Model the fold of this input.
Amino acid sequence: MALDIQDPVPVKDGSSMTREEFHHSYLKPQKPVVLRGLWKKYPAYDKWTMDFFKKSMGNIEVGLFGNRKEDISKTLEVPNATMRFDEYLNLIEREPTDLRLFLFPVFKHKPELLKDFDYPEITKGYIKIPFMFFGPPKSIVRMHQDIDMSNVFLTQFHGRKRVVLFAPDQSDLLYRLPFNVHSIVDVDNPDYQTYPGLKYVKGMSTILEHGDTLFMPSGYWHHIEYLEGGFGLSVRTVANGVGMKLQGVWNLGGKRLIDRMMRSINDEKWFEYKKSVAFSRADKAISKFNSGNYENEFQGTNAATT
Done:
């Protein structure tokens, strides 16, 4: 039985979206939306292609990350491999591989590309450190929350991408690891016997194509599958609300430091402890759900836990 992720993320015309409409309908209530054509007025919309990046910066050496399932407790920081950028782009156009290029600071290598786009006027508070993401067909980005809890605008420039979203108030039912922003469940192959909390989650899904921008509100869980080799760009705004802002600071400055320290002391034992906490929290959430108190007692609280 598949997870309940059949509800589609709503799709709106981003080229005509006003700031008032976006704030009222999506930013303030923290609801995801696909904004089609939001970036159409910027040169990047048509200019940024595989061939463009091969020719303009193909000689750059890039660090690549694979799907290391044995490291599910960790946020990946050390690349699996390095390769010339043009060779990598040829690879993901040609064949499946698990090697991905994420949080790529392309603008440090080629700052003139910053002239190819601007920050959409539908909102403000942008964190002007954009990143690009490149991936091959069939590769998976395991489910996680962004560590700074920012609002994210993810724009697809080449290839199609499937995205599954869950609201932050479902964190416990998704078996979120403490001191971490990852879940230990497999969205595409849910194991209900091991993870019974998955019977109670409800998510949304969408497929992004060229020119689509997905707005992911603060703290939203996202699982991403590259249906085709391609790339996208993310820009962020500051987290929504004081609670999410504080959680982002704690994630970056506290949780990550504690996690690294404990892994260095005894990685295996620390991971087992984190899993036990995740299961304990899920059991409590299931109990509350069955008693009818889940909505009142759990929604909005999970984002502020360790």
Summary: Residues 297-305 have pLDDT under 50 and may be disordered. The longest helix spans residues 241-291. Helices lie at 19-27, 44-47, 50-57, 85-94, 106-109, 241-291, 294-298. The domain at 7-244 is CATH 2.60.120.650 (Jelly Rolls).
